[in-house]
Known about the structure:
The complex is a heterodimer of chains A (25) and B (139).
Chain A: E1 9-11
Chain B: E1 3-5, E2 27-29, E3 35-37, H1 43-53, E4 56-68, E5 74-81, E6 86-93, E7 98-100, E8 104-107, H2 110-117, E9 122-123, E10 129-135
Amino acid sequence: NVEPRSVPVFPWHSLVPFLAPTQSD
Amino acid sequence: PPTSTSPHGSPSSPSAGLPPFFMKGSIIQLADGELKRVEDLRTEDFVQSAEVSGELKIDSSTVESIECSRTPNAVIIQFSVGENKAQVCVEVLVEYPFFVFGQGWSSCCPDRTTQLLALSCAKLSVGDVCISLTFKSLK
């Protein structure tokens, strides 16, 4: 069971790496 | 040469450990507000959240190679990112989990991931297609 006041909530995008390629132009 | 980057901004720092949100049981909020545990996330959750967000775009990042790093317990993973197949290198701890399309969480050392995070993982291999993000404005 989760205790709402003590459990942090993380945004979904925290879990995904930002792999932004360098723009070549 | 490939772009060198890190999933969370700074170079991997083994002493700092992994981000807390990969720990099994962590509560994740999707873009539509729904809450899910990290181990229950599915490919559709990421895809739909990116669509809702408006600013972010899901890219397919194919693992091209996995090599040992000079950093202990770390590897250098080379990805081919997006439609342009841009080459991007990422240095991460061997237990760092990536989400593979249609498969779920995967890491270079699943046993260590399970040991440290209690998160069930498959073995990340060359050819796997991982979920990654870019900002739409970068295009």
